[in-house]
TrEMBL record:
Transmembrane segments: none annotated. Belongs to the ABC transporter superfamily. GO terms for molecular function: ATP binding; hydrolase activity. CDD domains: ABC_cobalt_CbiO_domain1. It is an enzyme of class 3 (hydrolase). It holds the Pfam family ABC_tran. Residues 2-235 form the ABC transporter domain. InterPro entries: AAA+_ATPase, ABC_transporter-like_ATP-bd, ABC_transporter-like_CS, ABC_transpr_CbiO/EcfA_su, ECF_ABC_transporter_ATP-bd, P-loop_NTPase. This is Biotin transport system ATP-binding protein.
Length: 237
């Protein structure tokens, strides 16, 4: 259960004489569906909303709770439950070698090094990435890195996965692989995307425009609403 209690973010304006700028207007939400998409224009506030889910962004007003844990005061408990897949995989791949990064995610699950290593190789093989296991994360392609980042975050086994534009670097086949992988997960998945077919497949979608959630409901309707806003030249879309 994820709950936004009047949570929002305002930041000081560049000109101190001006009123603070709203990045995300305060919102109250319960997010329970298995697949929730977040859509909207560049700079509309999608990543800010997602980052509030695991305490990467601290709301300037209100609070966000995950399974009853406050994302700021109880950030450690929240991060044990929420995995975060960044748009740029290099923001999260911290070890130099692919298999070492997956092993790091498994550290809390397996204290034994040999078991951890075998488990990391199995996790890579499950996504068809075993051939990358001993490569440097800097020598593999952007799309390969994105899949390795997915593998690392899944290996940690948290019960909620938040993914910020997870398909951006992927070719058609890997795009399909990622969607199929996410689709088959038991975990709740909350994802921001500009791929409107991917968004339409969710159980629920939030449409963000100009820092406000302007639609919250069935995903196909959210996508239609977004297309309409763009067609009518809405400044926030
Ligand atoms: N801490 C901050 N201070 C100032 N401005 C911020 C801050 N965080 C976000 N912004 C601005 O707020 C807006 C929303 O940012 P956000 O990253 O949430 O957008 P987004 O919808 O994810 O965009 P994109 O689709 O391009 O990834 C942007 O204009 C961004 O520059």
């Amino acid at each position: 259960m994820i709950r936004f209690n009047n949570a929002g973010l305002s930041v000081p304006a560049d000109d101190p004489a001006q009123a603070p700028r709203t990045v995300l207007a305060p919102c109250t939400l319960e997010l329970n569906e298995r697949r929730i998409a977040v859509i909207g224009a560049n700079g509309s506030g999608k990543s800010t909303l997602l980052r509030m889910l695991n305490g990467l962004v601290t709301p300037s007003t209100g609070a966000v709770e995950v399974h009853g844990f406050d994302t700021v005061r109880q950030a450690k408990s929240v991060r044990r439950r929420v995995g975060f897949l960044f748009t740029d995989p290099l923001s999260q791949l911290v070890m130099p070698i692919v298999t070492e990064d997956v092993e790091l995610s498994l550290k809390a699950l397996h204290k034994d090094r040999a078991k951890r290593s075998a488990s990391a190789l199995r996790a890579l093989a499950a996504l068809g990435l075993e051939h990358l296991a001993h490569r440097s994360i800097y020598d593999i392609s952007g799309g390969e890195r994105q899949l390795v980042a997915l593998c690392s975050v899944l290996a940690a086994g948290q019960d909620i996965l938040v993914a910020d534009e997870p398909t951006t670097l992927l070719d058609l086949a890997n795009n399909e692989l990622l969607k199929k992988t996410l689709g088959a997960l038991d975990q709740q998945v909350i994802y921001a995307t500009h791929d409107l077919d991917f968004a339409a497949a969710a159980d629920r979608a939030l449409l963000v425009a100009g820092g406000k959630i302007v639609f919250d409901g069935p995903a196909p309707e959210a996508v239609d609403t977004y297309r309409r806003l763009v067609r009518h030249g809405s400044p926030a879309a």
